[in-house]
Amino acid sequence: AQTVTQSQPEMSVQEAETVTLSCTYDTSENNYYLFWYKQPPSRQMILVIRQEAYKQQNATENRFSVNFQKAAKSFSLKISDSQLGDTAMYFCAFMKPFLFGNEKLTFGTGTRLTIIP
Amino acid sequence: DTEVTQTPKHLVMGMTNKKSLKCEQHMGHRAMYWYKQKAKKPPELMFVYSYEKLSINESVPSRFSPECPNSSLLNLHLHALQPEDSALYLCASSQAQSSGNTIYFGEGSWLTVV
Question: Which residue of B has its CA nearest to A44?
Fold first, then answer.
């Protein structure tokens, strides 16, 4: 079974600063996918970024980037030029691939990020 | 804007009521999911439908009954629920064409059982 650990329950940062959220996971699988989702107060779970384990290159999406260290089983999220709209709960998630959509997301416990004006 | 639409946004029901949560997606996805999320906790998988067939049931009590009428629709029928079933219910979908599919979530339905 896989486990995902987010060791920072809460973080806060000034607007326009850079913040890094930590995530570690435990698995015996070699092929898997990692995700960061954000859940603002509206409660919708929004995909932030996705990383394939077989890709060495770190994924980036505009102001969001990851530092994926496969050997260390670490998957941190960096938010640059943070904005008030980034205030949300951030979940790190692990997925083992299966055919035809029979895939489960294993979530960490989340990090509540607050951007201070 | 989410392309997974859930109705109703909020539902209050008594323990003897029968109600349903509905979910719709028009992205051509062939896998659909129900997750349950309690306050301050991560979502937990309940059911997975792949190509309109129930493929995963995470030992969910029978008072929750899923239904997938077609590839775009997913329902969750609720009957004789308990107050501890009060939670946010999230519907999600993915392409299911091969493997490693990104899962997209709806806005959720808040359920309160009184």
Answer: B107
pLDDT digits (tens, 9 = 90+) for A60-96: 999 999 999 999 999 999 999 999 999 999 999 999 9
Q: How confident is the model at residue B2 (pLDDT cuts 50, 70, 90)?
A: low
Question: In this complex, which of A37, A97, A108 lies closest to B100 when CB atoms are compared?
Answer: A97
CATH of the domain at B78: 2.60.40.10
For residue A52, the enclosing domain spans: 3-116
Cα within 13 Å of Cα(A59), Cβ side: 18
What is the spatial distance between Cα A50 and Cα B46, in angstroms, rounded to a whole number?
23
Interface of A with B (CB under 8 A): 33, 35, 37, 42-47, 50, 52, 91, 95, 97-105, 107-110
Which CATH number goes with the domain that contains A78? 2.60.40.10
Task: Report how many domains make up chain A.
Answer: 1
- Number of structural domains, chain B? 1
Given a contact cutoff of 8 angstroms between Cβ atoms, the answer to whether A5 and A25 are in contact is yes
Q: How many angstroms separate the CA atoms of A87 and A13, rounded?
A: 10
Output the six-digit token pair for A87.
Answer: 């205030």
Q: Tell whether the model's pLDDT for residue B99 goes beyond 90.
A: no
Chains A & B: contacts with CB separation below 8 Å: 73
Domain coverage including residue B82:
4-113
